[in-house]
């Protein structure tokens, strides 16, 4: 397979991070009021409260190459409780896909019971485990899982960052990027896609380049 990322040596598969975020970078609890109110976050469910007709088709298009999921513990629990029971109707295609593919769960709890069929715990040696995923799969998608995403961004363990940016300002909340994100230059893969609600899809590739500094004369 030829690499789509000329800036780096690419393994056979890719790790893709898919996040919904407000304009000020908050990615906490987009899907439901009880998803993640930790830290006193007042807007859990903000994405569900701002309908967007353009997001669904782009998500479905982006899922076509998915052949594995890599999830943080909280997101895994939400998905495991929901998707096994939603394999028909409008979301049936995604439900059947998620149920069929391998699921990797990043957790420090070695005694965690994973009841969703095809689930495996990872986290003992994340760099080695991600390398093994790249060797075994074409596209491993990390959906939500903002706490775990911070680890991937800190260690540079991703290949593509897909951001659905909503025209909302939420203030406090868990941000896409925290202070530990690895300094790097990202490359825009395609022009931004914007729907009538103002939701913008930005697709970036990771590179091995680091930001340069200078002074304007």
Automatic annotation (TrEMBL):
<feature type="domain" description="Bacterial bifunctional deaminase-reductase C-terminal">
    <location>
        <begin position="15"/>
        <end position="184"/>
    </location>
</feature>
<protein>
    <submittedName>
        <fullName>Dihydrofolate reductase family protein</fullName>
    </submittedName>
</protein>
<dbReference type="Pfam" id="PF01872">
    <property type="entry name" value="RibD_C"/>
</dbReference>
<dbReference type="InterPro" id="IPR002734">
    <property type="entry name" value="RibDG_C"/>
</dbReference>
<dbReference type="InterPro" id="IPR024072">
    <property type="entry name" value="DHFR-like_dom_sf"/>
</dbReference>
């Amino acid at each position: 397979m030829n690499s789509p990322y000329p800036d780096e040596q690419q393994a056979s598969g890719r790790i893709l991070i898919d996040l919904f975020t407000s304009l000020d970078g908050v990615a906490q609890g987009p899907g439901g009021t009880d998803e993640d109110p930790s830290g006193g976050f007042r807007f859990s469910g903000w994405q569900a409260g701002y309908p967007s007709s353009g997001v669904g088709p782009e998500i479905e298009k982006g899922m076509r190459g998915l052949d594995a999921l890599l999830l943080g513990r909280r997101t895994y629990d939400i998905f495991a409780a929901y998707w096994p029971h939603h394999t028909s109707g409008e979301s049936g295609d995604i439900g059947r896909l998620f149920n069929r593919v391998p699921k990797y769960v990043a957790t420090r709890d070695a005694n965690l019971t994973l009841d969703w069929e095809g689930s495996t715990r990872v986290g003992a040696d994340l760099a080695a485990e991600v390398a093994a995923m790249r060797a075994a799969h074409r596209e491993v998608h990390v959906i939500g899982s903002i706490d775990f995403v911070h680890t991937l961004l800190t260690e540079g363990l991703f290949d593509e960052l897909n951001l659905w940016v909503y025209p909302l300002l939420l203030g406090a909340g868990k941000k896409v990027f925290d202070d530990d994100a690895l300094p790097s230059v990202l490359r825009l893969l395609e022009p931004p896609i914007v729907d009538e609600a103002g939701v913008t899809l930005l697709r970036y590739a990771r590179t091995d380049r680091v930001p340069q500094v200078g002074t304007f004369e």
